[in-house]
Specification:
With 579 residues, the chain is α/β, with parallel strands linked by helices. 28% of the residues lie in helices and 26% in strands. The strands form 8 sheets. Strands 1-16-15-2-3-4-5 form a 7-stranded mixed sheet, covered by helices on one side. Strands 8-9-11-12-14-13 form a 6-stranded mixed sheet. A 5-stranded mixed sheet has the order 23-20-29-22-30. Helix 1 packs across helix 3, helix 3 runs antiparallel to helix 11 and helix 5 packs antiparallel against helix 11. The longest helix is centred in the middle third of the chain and has 16 residues. The N and C termini lie far apart (73 Å).
Length: 579
């Protein structure tokens, strides 16, 4: 690309997109405060400051293979060069959940994404929960291949840290300490069996406990050790988020129980909240999050003098920045090559949909995030479609699927293999188990525990209907690893019917689902432990969905799925019925 065009694109990004950028900041512990004691000290400080440069930390999070969405890697490269041209010393870091999310990740088991991260020039990264979806050993191999450093202060194997808890980078004449922390909900958010040995004992840990003290202490120790080693600033790279189900390990929990952190760059919950909160000593700490799929790029500025600030650059158009602006650079070429390697497999048409099959609320709009995700807290037409596929192809009595495993909407029009892999990016194996009605009731209760909040284990269903009485607080119990242990009190799931008939707690039903839930305890689901497995032929979820669309539906997703809120299989009851 000619320099004049590149400069024009950089200017366009800055003027049209990067502004307005959200800015939040707090006084940094490494910044100078107070009057100099003497002229000599003032002169020495001035000499030292002359060697210091303004530092810009650019961070990404929850990319989920969205390498050509939002800003994309091509836009990120332009932003990085733009900041350098402004005089910043720039360092690039990632907050996890990068390598999983669409067919490129699934078909290469994350390898293609690591290649792109290497080319992009990342310096530091942390594992998110989805880095483990292709297996712990696979991820550890990817970490060896990475030309950047993975860190995490709370990812352990038999009580020992797998990665260094922190790393120090010298940039702009200063030492910056980066501390990594990964959500303990990884145990259930990925497949729990991935973290067990051959005897079913957990050998990997994320320092999960009921109080959060394990994580708080690990973060504090890493911060203190980085300071002792000479770090002037300490930045936490977190994959913790703000969701209620992640307590006591949210970013707010960690900040309020620690000190010495200058900024907290966070991920996991896909939010874009920019907040300042006080640590345990009452000092203000900026926390920044940059959403998902590269719709936003996060930044943290450490000036030669003054406050540490953090915020995000946002791309608000549906079409990506590289597409709209015609960006052509090294990363645009690398992304095209990566996509091209699997394009022939994905471009084939398999069906037509007469309407959008959605994961979103058809009406609600969040002023910051845009569309409001619904599939993890209520029925949707895509949830109906996917569970119908499981039930009809396997011949089971009912089908149950966690909403968190149904990832992306299917637009109206031609349906391709790419759509299939985007809906089911995990490559789960189909299972049918023979379960009692009571096991099904327990599973539904656990899946409904967070409603009206989100839960990846919220159950989309086929062949079954149920009500969730949300005026009743959930009484589900769980162990220290977040695994379901029972129901201690009144149940909020009621009026459960199998094909129109009230469920019999003592009867046996064939239940279709996937190995993530039935065999691996995904989302902490243990209700089906001990259920006899019925052979389902070893199909993967993607192939099963293709078989349903091309077979049972004859290549047309018709009007029976026209209502985005589904067919009335799940009813939310917000107020206690009159007696």
């Amino acid at each position: 690309m000619k320099r004049s065009l590149r400069t024009l694109i950089c200017a366009a990004l800055a003027a049209a997109l990067l502004l307005p950028a959200v800015v939040y900041g707090a006084a940094a512990s490494g910044s100078s405060t107070g009057e100099p004691a003497a002229a000599a000290e003032d002169s020495q400080a001035q000499d030292e400051n002359e060697d210091k440069k303004d530092i810009m930390i650019l961070y990404t999070s929850d990319i989920h293979c969205g390498i050509d969405e939002g800003f994309g890697y091509a836009g990120l490269e332009q932003i990085l060069k733009y900041e350098q041209e402004k005089g910043y010393e720039v360092i690039l870091v990632d907050d996890g959940d990068n390598i999983q999310g669409d067919p490129l990740g699934l078909l290469t088991k994350g390898d293609a994404l690591i290649d792109l991260m290497n080319k992009m020039g990342y310096s530091v990264a942390i594992p998110g929960n989805h880095e483990f979806d292709y297996g712990v050993d696979n991820f550890l191999s990817l970490a060896e291949k990475a030309q950047f450093k993975y860190i995490s202060c709370n990812f352990q194997y038999k009580g020992e840290n797998v990665f260094d808890p922190y790393v120090i980078r010298e940039i702009g004449g200063r030492k910056i300490g980066f501390v990594g922390v990964t959500t303990p909900t990884t145990i259930t958010a990925s497949k729990p069996t991935l973290f067990e040995d051959e005897n079913g004992e957990f050998v990997y840990s994320f320092l999960q406990d009921e109080t959060g003290e394990g994580v708080y202490n690990a973060v504090q120790s890493a911060v203190d050790n980085a300071r002792t080693e000479g770090a002037e600033y300490v930045i936490v790279l977190g994959h913790l988020g703000n969701e209620e189900q992640c307590r006591p390990w949210t970013y707010a929990d960690v900040i309020s129980h620690t000190n010495g952190i200058d900024a907290f760059l966070d991920g996991h919950s896909h939010d874009t909240d920019q907040v300042i909160m006080k640590n345990k000593d009452g000092k203000e700490v900026p926390r920044s999050a940059c959403g998902t799929k590269m719709q936003h790029i996060g930044w943290c500025r450490i000036p030669a003098e003054g406050e540490v600030t953090a915020g995000i650059y946002s791309w608000t158009l549906d079409d990506s920045a590289p597409e709209v602006l015609g960006i052509e650079n090294e990363m645009s070429t690398a992304v095209k090559e990566a996509r091209g390697s699997i394009s022939k497999l994905l471009e084939g048409k398999i069906a037509v949909s007469e309407q959008e099959m959605t994961i979103y609320d058809p009406v609600a709009v969040d002023p910051e995030w845009g569309k409001v995700r619904m599939i993890r807290r209520a029925e949707t037409n895509l949830g109906d479609l996917c569970t119908d596929a499981y039930r009809f192809v396997t011949g089971a009595d009912i089908a149950l699927l966690g909403g968190g495993g149904i990832r992306v909407s299917i637009p109206a029009g031609d349906v391709t293999m790419k759509n299939m892999y985007e809906v089911f990016p995990f490559g789960n194996e189909i299972c049918v188990v023979q379960a009692t009605g009571q096991q099904i009731l327990d599973a539904l209760e656990w899946g409904a525990a967070a409603v009206p909040g989100e839960n990846g284990g919220f159950m989309q269903v086929s062949g079954l209907s149920y009500e969730i009485h949300t005026y009743i607080d959930s009484t589900c119990t769980k162990d220290v690893n977040g695994m379901f242990t029972g129901v201690a009190g009144e149940r909020r799931v009621r009026n459960v019917k199998v094909n129109g008939t009230p469920i019999d707690p003592d009867a046996l039903y064939n239940v279709a689902g996937n190995d993530y839930w039935f065999l691996n305890g995904g989302d902490g689901q243990t209700a089906f432990n001990g259920a006899e497995r019925v052979d389902a032929g070893g199909l993967l979820d993607v192939q099963l969905l293709v078989d349903y669309l091309t077979g049972e539906l004859g290549g047309v997703i018709g009007k029976e799925y026209s209502d985005p809120t589904g067919q009335g299989r799940i009813v939310i009851v917000e107020e206690k019925p009159a007696e």
